[in-house]
Write a structure and sequence with these properties.
The chain has about 260 residues and is α+β, with helices and mostly antiparallel strands. Helix content is about 25%, strand content about 20%. Bound molecules: ligand 9ZP.
Length: about 260
């Protein structure tokens, strides 16, 4: 390790917010975020526990990192909805930036899916209803998420789902003024995003559909070893067949099905 960088990646056991004087104790590692590790952080004075994104300052030098962290902080501090993760605070010390986020003790739907292989239809419907509530709030605020995936759906102790990770989220620009940026999970990219026509509300809904398909079947709807082949499938307009093992939605009668 380069001199002067010893331990730069690892935050201390006790962490202080110099602005408020609050002291926090670092708890268990929750996993890797895009720019650093995430830990449970307990506020000593109140005993409240948060999920903290701990971003080493050294990582801020990489292109786009500071912007992503800033964007998440900026957007989250204005949002207030029971299905969007809450930002409780943020601060920095010599080595790291800290985002204190709402702790969702059951982890992400990606983790739950990994442990179980696939989820039951009723269960997916239960989660989906909540995700839709959070997503319509976000869209109503003129914000597109742009990175909806199972690892960004967090589940609380009380089985509430929260949409998290707004690092790629963006205020919705009018269609003519959208940037044709390719970002998000490749398997979940909508055709219009691939064609660089920008990411709008429909592209979020496309990604959500992909995520729910994956939750139900254990596989992403579009999969290929080669990126070009994957994009060909997505552009092809053929939605994968719904596996026979999936139960039809009881009572759901689609009036357009016969047409
Ligand atoms: N992870 C296993 C690999 C050890 C877990 O068991 C686990 C446990 C969690 O809570 C006890 C948890 C995530 C994984 N909780 C949690 N994770 C969040 C989160 C809230 N709660 N978020 C709030 N906003 N964004 C998310 C995000 C960053 C803090 N995460 C996870 C993403 C990757 C690791 C943490």
């Amino acid at each position: 390790m380069a001199p002067g960088h010893e331990g730069a990646e690892l935050p201390g056991r006790y962490i202080q917010d110099a602005g408020t004087g609050m002291l926090y104790k670092r708890g268990r590692l929750l996993g890797e975020g895009a720019f650093g590790c995430c830990y449970q952080l307990a506020e000593l004075a109140s005993g409240k526990v948060y999920a903290a994104k701990v971003i080493p300052r050294a990582r801020l030098a990489a292109v786009g990192t500071r912007e992503r962290v800033e964007r998440e902080r900026e957007l989250l501090c204005h949002l207030c909805h029971r299905h969007i993760v809450r930002l409780h605070g943020h601060f920095a010390d010599r080595g790291h930036l800290y985002l204190l986020l709402e702790l969702c003790s059951r982890g992400s739907l990606a983790g739950i899916l990994r442990a179980r292989g696939r989820l039951r239809g009723l269960e997916v419907r239960f989660y989906l209803k909540q995700i839709i509530a959070g997503l319509s709030y976000l869209h109503g605020q003129g914000i597109v998420h742009r990175d909806l995936k199972l690892s960004n759906f967090l589940v609380t102790e009380k089985m509430q789902v929260k949409i998290g990770d707004l690092g790629l989220a963006q205020r919705l620009a009018p269609p003519g003024r959208r940037w044709g940026v390719l970002c998000g999970t490749p398997n979940y990219l909508a055709p219009e995003v691939l064609d660089r026509r920008g990411h709008g509300v429909p592209s979020d809904i496309w990604a959500l559909g992909c995520a729910m398909y994956e939750a139900l079947t254990g596989r992403a709807p579009f999969e290929a070893a080669q990126r070009q082949e994957l994009y060909r499938q997505i552009r092809g307009g053929t939605v994968p067949a719904v596996p026979a093992a999936l139960s039809p939605c009881p009572g759901a009668h689609c009036p357009h099905a016969a047409a």
